[in-house]
C-alpha cells in the first residue's frame, strides 16, 4: 500500500504546485522539493523487503474482461529508477527558486515538472503493461508542454519530440497487444516468467523489434537522436530533469526490464549493440565540435545513452549490472553539469566555452563543482564516472555475440569514451585554466547548493561505490534472476578494463592537446540533417493532409457528400462480390408495408425534384415521418420515438437557417444532375439491399436472444433497448456521448456568425404558445426519462424532447438571461460527463468493474419497497450531455435570431 500512497502523494503534490506557486512565488520549489524527499523517505521504508527479493506492491482489477489490472510493484530495478526520479527531482526543484525570475508563470512550470515526476514514478512502478503504456504516453505529453513552455522557439522542437516519442508509444502499444495475445496476460511479472513461451512464438521478433523502436525513440538513438538537442530550448531545470536524468532513461528502463526475455538473442544483441555504439560515437563527435555548453551536454547525453543501450545489448550479467550503475552515475553528473551550466549562463551571460576561461579566479566554487562533474563525465578516478565506465568496459570485453565481438565492441566503446574524455576535459579546462575574460561573482549558496550536493555525491560515491552494491545487485537479479551479479569497487586489480581506461585517457589527452586542429577538422564535417529530414517529411504529410481535406473547405454540398456516397456504393459492391446476393429480400411483408413504401418512394422523388429549400426540408421531414411509421409497423417503438423527435428538432433547427438560403436552388447543368442522380441511385440501391438483407432475417441473432432473455432478470428493466444502452454496454454509451460532448465543444469554439438573422418574433400566438407548451414539454421530458427503463423513452429521447423546448424558445425570440451559449451549455456538458464517470468509478470503488450497475431497495411510505439503480444516474448523465449539445446547437444557430427579434420588437 505504501507504493500506492507514494504515487498518490506525487499526484497531490502536482495538483498543489500551482496553489503553492500563487502563495510563495518561485520559492514554492523548496516546498515541492521537500515533498519529493518525503516521498523518497516513505518509499525507503520498503527497501528491506525490496533488497530481500520480496517486492511490495498493490493490485486492483482495472479492466477485468481483458485481464488488465492497476498493479504497482517496487522491485530492485524500479527502486533504483525511483531513486533517480525523486532525488534528482528534489535537487531540480530546490534549484528552480533561484533560477526562475521573480515574476512569471511559475505555477505552470512547477505543475508540469511535478506531474512529469509523478508520471515517471508511475512508469517504473507499473506492474502491468497497459499501466506502463499509460504512464509512458503521459511523459511524452508532459515533455511536449515543458519544451513548448519556452515560447515560440520551443514550438517546433516540442512538436518534433512529441511526434517522435509518440511514434514510439504506438510501437509500444503494438508490442503490448502482441505480448498479451501470446502470453494471455498483461501482468509484467507473468510475462517475464513466460520467457520460453514468448521466444517460441512466431511474433517474438516483432515484439522485440517494437520494444526496441519504442525505447530508441525515447532514448534518442540513431536515427531518432535529433529531437534531444532541439529540446534544449527548454529552460535549464527542464533539460536537467527530463533530458538528462529521467525521461531519456525511460527507454533504458524498458530495454533493461525486457532483457529478461531477450538477453542473449542474437537479433536483439546485434541491433542494440550496433545502434548503441553508432549513437555513442556520433554523439561524442557532435559533442566535441560544440562550443555551446548546453548543446555539448545534449550530444553528450545522446552518446552516453548509446553506450547504455549497447551494454544492455551485450546481455551478460556483468554488462547489465554495469549499465544499471552507469545509469545512476550518468544521472548524477549530467544533472550536475546542466544545473551548473544554467548558473554560468545566468552569471556570465554566455554558454560558449571559448568565453568562459578563468572561472576559477572569480567563481571558485562554481568552477570546482563544474570540474568535478566534468571529470566524472570523462571517467577520471576516483569519481563515480570512473567506476561505472570501467565496469562498462568489462561488460563490452565480455561480449560473446559473434567471434571477436568482445574486441570489436570494446574498441568502439574505448573510441567513444576517448572522445568523451576529450570534451569532458575541455569543460574542466574551461573552468580552471586560461585568462579571466569577465568580471563575475560567485552566486549565492542557495543557487549552488543543489548542484553541489550532486557533485559531492558523485565524488564520494566513487570510492564508496560499495554502498550502491546491494541495490544494483538486487536490480540485476530482477532482470536475470538465474545469474550472479558482480561486486563493484573502486580498485579491483590490474585488468583488461583498467588497460582500456588507460587507453581511453591516453587517446583523450591527445585529442585534447591537439584540440585546435581537431576542432578545425570537426567544423568541416557536415552539419546534422536529422531535423531537416524530419521537418521535410512532416511538411509533406501536412501538404498531403491539405489535399485530402480540401473538399471539406468548399461551400459546395456536393464536395461534402461525394465521398460518403461513394463509400456506400463501394461498400455495397464489396459486399455483393464477397458475400453474394442476399438470399431473401423481403422488402415489404404486407399491404401496410407496401403503402408505406409507396409513400416513401413518392416523398424521395419529391425531395429530388424540389426547387426550393422550404419544399426540400418539408418533403425530407415527410420522409422521416414515413420511416417512423415503418418502424412502428416493424415493432420498434423506441427507435420510432427517437426518429420522430429527431425529425421535429431537425425541422425546427432548419428554420433558423432557411432565411439565409436562396428562395430557389440555383440551376445546375444536365451533366451534374445526371451524375448526382446515378450516384444517388447506386447509393440508395446499396443501402436498400443491405437493409433488406439484415432486416429480412427470420430469427433473432444469438446476441439478441441473450438480451431478450437476460434484460429483466439482470437489470430489472423491461425496455431491452434501454438496458443495453445503460446496463450492458454502458461503456459504449459513455464513449458515444463523449463524442457528443466533443462536438458541442467544437461548436462552442467555432468563430461567431457576424450577421444577425431576422426571427419570427413572439407575436400574439407564438409568445403565449411558448409560455403554455414549454412547461408541458418539460413534464413530458421528465416522464420519458423516468419510464425509460421499462417503456419507450430514456435519457436520450427525453433530452431530445427537452431540446425541442429550447429550440421553440429560440424560434419565438426568447432570449436566455444566463449568458452566451458557452455559459449555458457548459454546466450541462460538464455535469453529464462527471456524473457518468462518477457512476463508473463508484462501482470500481466497491470492487466491481467500471460502470457495473448497482441496485438498492428502499422502503418509501406509502409506496412500499422502491428499487433504485445506478443506471438511472448514468442515464441522467446521458440526458445532460445530449441536452447540452442541443443547447449549444440552438444557441449557435438561433442566438442571433433572438437578438434580431428583440431589436425588431423595439
In the sheet with the most strands, the strands line up as 1-2
Q: Name the poorly predicted regions.
A: 753-758, 896-906
What percentage of the residues does DSSP assign to strands (E)?
A: under 5%
Radius of gyration: 34 Å
- The percent range for helix content is over 70%
| Main sheet characteristics | 2 strands, antiparallel
Global outline: elongated
3D architecture notes:
This protein has about 900 residues and is mostly helical. Among the domains are: about 280-545, no CATH class; about 590-665; about 715-750 and about 765-895, no CATH class. Helices cover about 75% and strands about 5% of the residues. The strands form 2 sheets. Strands 1-2 form a two-stranded antiparallel ribbon. Strands 3-4 form a two-stranded antiparallel ribbon. The chain is elongated and about 100 Å long. Mean pLDDT is about 85; it is low at about 755-760 and about 895-905. Its main location: membrane. It comes from Sphaerisporangium rubeum. It is found in: Cell membrane; Membrane. It is a multi-pass membrane protein. InterPro entries: CPA3_Na-H_Antiporter_A, MnhB, MrpA_C/MbhD, MrpA_C/MbhE, ND/Mrp_TM.
Amino acid at each position: 500500500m505504501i507504493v500506492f500512497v507514494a504515487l498518490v502523494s506525487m499526484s497531490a503534490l502536482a495538483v498543489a504546485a500551482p496553489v503553492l506557486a500563487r502563495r510563495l512565488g518561485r520559492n514554492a520549489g523548496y516546498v515541492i522539493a521537500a515533498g519529493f524527499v518525503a516521498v523518497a523517505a516513505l518509499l525507503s521504508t520498503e527497501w528491506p523487503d525490496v533488497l530481500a527479493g520480496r517486492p511490495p506492491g498493490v493490485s486492483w482489477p482495472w479492466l477485468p474482461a481483458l485481464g488488465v489490472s492497476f498493479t504497482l510493484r517496487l522491485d530492485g530495478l524500479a527502486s533504483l529508477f525511483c531513486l533517480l526520479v525523486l532525488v534528482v527531482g528534489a535537487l531540480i526543484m530546490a534549484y528552480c527558486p533561484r533560477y526562475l525570475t521573480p515574476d512569471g508563470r511559475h505555477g505552470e512550470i512547477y505543475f508540469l515538472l511535478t506531474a512529469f515526476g509523478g508520471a515517471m514514478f508511475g512508469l517504473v512502478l507499473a506492474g502491468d503493461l497497459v499501466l506502463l503504456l499509460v504512464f509512458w504516453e503521459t511523459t511524452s505529453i508532459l515533455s511536449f508542454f515543458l519544451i513548448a513552455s519556452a515560447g515560440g522557439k520551443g514550438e517546433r522542437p516540442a512538436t518534433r519530440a512529441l511526434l517522435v516519442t509518440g511514434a514510439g508509444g504506438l510501437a509500444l502499444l503494438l508490442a503490448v497487444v502482441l505480448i498479451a495475445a501470446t502470453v494471455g496476460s498483461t501482468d509484467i511479472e507473468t510475462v517475464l516468467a513466460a520467457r520460453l513461451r514468448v521466444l517460441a512464438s512466431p511474433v517474438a521478433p516483432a515484439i522485440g523489434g517494437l520494444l526496441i523502436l519504442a525505447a530508441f525513440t525515447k532514448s534518442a538513438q540513431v536515427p531518432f537522436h535529433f529531437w534531444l538537442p532541439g529540446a534544449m530550448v527548454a529552460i535549464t531545470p527542464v533539460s536537467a530533469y527530463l533530458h538528462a536524468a529521467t525521461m531519456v532513461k525511460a527507454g533504458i528502463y524498458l530495454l533493461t526490464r525486457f532483457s529478461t526475455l531477450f538477453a542473449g538473442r542474437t537479433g536483439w544483441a546485434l541491433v542494440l549493440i550496433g545502434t548503441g555504439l553508432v549513437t555513442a560515437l556520433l554523439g561524442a563527435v557532435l559533442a566535441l565540435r560544440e562550443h555551446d555548453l548546453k548543446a555539448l551536454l545534449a550530444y553528450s547525453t545522446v552518446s552516453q545513452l548509446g553506450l547504455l543501450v549497447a551494454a544492455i545489448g551485450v546481455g551478460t550479467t556483468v554488462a547489465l549490472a554495469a549499465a544499471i550503475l552507469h545509469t545512476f552515475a550518468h544521472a548524477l553528473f549530467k544533472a550536475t553539469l546542466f544545473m551548473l551550466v544554467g548558473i554560468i549562463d545566468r552569471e556570465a551571460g554566455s554558454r560558449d566555452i571559448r568565453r568562459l576561461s578563468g572561472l576559477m579566479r572569480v567563481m571558485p566554487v562554481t568552477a570546482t563543482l563544474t570540474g568535478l562533474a566534468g571529470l566524472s563525465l570523462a571517467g577520471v578516478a576516483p569519481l563515480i564516472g570512473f567506476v561505472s565506465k570501467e565496469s562498462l568496459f568489462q561488460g563490452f570485453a565480455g561480449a560473446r555475440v559473434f567471434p571477436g565481438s568482445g574486441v570489436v565492441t570494446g574498441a568502439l566503446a574505448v573510441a567513444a569514451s576517448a572522445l568523451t574524455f576529450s570534451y569532458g576535459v575541455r569543460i574542466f579546462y574551461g573552468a580552471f585554466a586560461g585568462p579571466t575574460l569577465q568580471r563575475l561573482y560567485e552566486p549565492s549558496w542557495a543557487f549552488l547548493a543543489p548542484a553541489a550536493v550532486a557533485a559531492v555525491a558523485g565524488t564520494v560515491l566513487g570510492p564508496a561505490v560499495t554502498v550502491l552494491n546491494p541495490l544494483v545487485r538486487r536490480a540485476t537479479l530482477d532482470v536475470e534472476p538465474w545469474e550472479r551479479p558482480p561486486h563493484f569497487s573502486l580498485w579491483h586489480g590490474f585488468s583488461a578494463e583498467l588497460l582500456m581506461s588507460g587507453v581511453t585517457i591516453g587517446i583523450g589527452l591527445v585529442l585534447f592537446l591537439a584540440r585546435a586542429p581537431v576542432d578545425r577538422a570537426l567544423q568541416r564535417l557536415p552539419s546534422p540533417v536529422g531535423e531537416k529530414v524530419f521537418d521535410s517529411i512532416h511538411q509533406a504529410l501536412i501538404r498531403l493532409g491539405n489535399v485530402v481535406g480540401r473538399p471539406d473547405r468548399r461551400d459546395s454540398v456536393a464536395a461534402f457528400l461525394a465521398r460518403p456516397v461513394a463509400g456506400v456504393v463501394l461498400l455495397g459492391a464489396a459486399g455483393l462480390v464477397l458475400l453474394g446476393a442476399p438470399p431473401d429480400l423481403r422488402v415489404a411483408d404486407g399491404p401496410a408495408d407496401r403503402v408505406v413504401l409507396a409513400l416513401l418512394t413518392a416523398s424521395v422523388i419529391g425531395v429530388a425534384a424540389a426547387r426550393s429549400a422550404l419544399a426540400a426540408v418539408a418533403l425530407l421531414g415527410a420522409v422521416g415521418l414515413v420511416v417512423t411509421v415503418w418502424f412502428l409497423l416493424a415493432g420498434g417503438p423506441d427507435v420510432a420515438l427517437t426518429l420522430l423527435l429527431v425529425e421535429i428538432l431537425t425541422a425546427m433547427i432548419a428554420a433558423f437557417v432557411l432565411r439565409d438560403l436562396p428562395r430557389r436552388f440555383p440551376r445546375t447543368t444536365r451533366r451534374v444532375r445526371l451524375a448526382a442522380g446515378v450516384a444517388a441511385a447506386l447509393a440508395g440501391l446499396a443501402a436498400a439491399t443491405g437493409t433488406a438483407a439484415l432486416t429480412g432475417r427470420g430469427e433473432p441473432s444469438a446476441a439478441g436472444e441473450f438480451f431478450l432473455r437476460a434484460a429483466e432478470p439482470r437489470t430489472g428493466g423491461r425496455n431491452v433497448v434501454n438496458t443495453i444502452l445503460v446496463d450492458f454496454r454502458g461503456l459504449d454509451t459513455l464513449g458515444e456521448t463523449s463524442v457528443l460532448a466533443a462536438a458541442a465543444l467544437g461548436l462552442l469554439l467555432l468563430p461567431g456568425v457576424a450577421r444577425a438573422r431576422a426571427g419570427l418574433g413572439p407575436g400574439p400566438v407564438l409568445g403565449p404558445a411558448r409560455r403554455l407548451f414549454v412547461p408541458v414539454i418539460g413534464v413530458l421530458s421528465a416522464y420519458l426519462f423516468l419510464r425509460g427503463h421499462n417503456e419507450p423513452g430514456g435519457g436520450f429521447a427525453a433530452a431530445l424532447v427537452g431540446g425541442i423546448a429550447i429550440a421553440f424558445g429560440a424560434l419565438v425570440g426568447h432570449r436566455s438571461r444566463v449568458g452566451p451559449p458557452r455559459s449555458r451549455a457548459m454546466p450541462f456538458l460538464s455535469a453529464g460527463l462527471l456524473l457518468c464517470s462518477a457512476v463508473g468509478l463508484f462501482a470500481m470503488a466497491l470492487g466491481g468493474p467500471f460502470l457495473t450497475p448497482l441496485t438498492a431497495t428502499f422502503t418509501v411510505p406509502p409506496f412500499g419497497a422502491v428499487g433504485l439503480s445506478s443506471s438511472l444516474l448514468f442515464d441522467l448523465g446521458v440526458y445532460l450531455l445530449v441536452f447540452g449539445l442541443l443547447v449549444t446547437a440552438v444557441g449557435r444557430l438561433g442566438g442571433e435570431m433572438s437578438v434580431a427579434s428583440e431589436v425588431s420588437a423595439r
